[in-house]
Design a protein that fits this description.
Layout lengths: L6 E2 L4 E2 L17 H30 L2 H26 L5 H28 L3
Antiparallel strand pairs: 1-2
Helix pairs in contact: 1-2, 1-3, 2-3
């Protein structure tokens, strides 16, 4: 049975990391350093977004619940942007990965937002 691919092109085929067959995998065209710097850039921007759109409004409202609620919504929207795009574009992209990652992004961002709110209160904002 052929393995399912979530990304491929006519010249190069990238095996799905969820595939049972390791023989379909090939080397990545992106270097590890590029991945790390891209991830660092994304998460730096993400933290700025959490601060500006979640923590600062929650500090103004003086509400931890506000911080956690806005953080959950912000995380859900941000993670859904990536996961649902992958699900729509890549054949065989696992539904379970989408579901788990959406929950992860929602809970993680709500938690980080609550911690950011607590830090802001502690610092006197």
């Amino acid at each position: 049975m052929p393995s399912r691919h979530w990304a491929s092109s006519s010249s190069t085929s990238y095996g799905s990391p969820w595939s049972r067959s390791r023989s379909t995998r090939s080397t990545s065209v992106t270097s590890c350093g590029t991945i790390r710097s891209s991830a660092a850039l994304f998460y730096s921007l993400y933290l700025v977004g959490v601060l500006v759109f979640v923590v600062l409004p929650a500090l103004e409202a003086e509400s931890l619940v506000h911080a956690a609620g806005l953080g959950a919504l912000f995380g859900l929207i941000a993670y859904a942007t990536f996961d649902l795009t992958c699900y729509a574009l890549f054949q065989g992209f696992p539904t379970v990965v989408v579901a788990v990652d959406l929950v992860w992004g929602t809970v993680l961002t709500a938690s980080v937002s609550a911690i950011g709110y607590g830090a802001g209160r502690w610092l006197g904002f």
